[in-house]
Write a structure and sequence with these properties.
This protein is an all-alpha fold. It has helices at about 5-25, 30-40, 45-65. Helix 1 packs parallel to helix 3.
């Protein structure tokens, strides 16, 4: 696999991580180190953690709106 491709993936994932960390509730996204331990070290694993954080945020907002 091309190194530039992996670098581009990681850069994009870092931007998504920063947006989640700035806008989503604390605790929905594990640290990068925790993601490596929980899911694995590949970009797809970071993507999985990011997706779960977004889903958790939407679920929390939905629960809060229905209260």
């Amino acid at each position: 696999m091309d190194e530039n491709y992996i670098y581009g993936e990681r850069t994009g994932l870092q931007l998504v991580r920063m947006a989640i960390e700035l806008t989503c509730p604390a605790g929905v996204l594990p640290s990068e180190e925790a993601v490596n331990c929980l899911y694995g070290p590949l970009p797809v694993h970071e993507g999985e953690a990011l997706a779960k954080a977004i889903i958790e945020t939407v679920e929390r907002l939905t629960r809060h709106a229905s209260d």
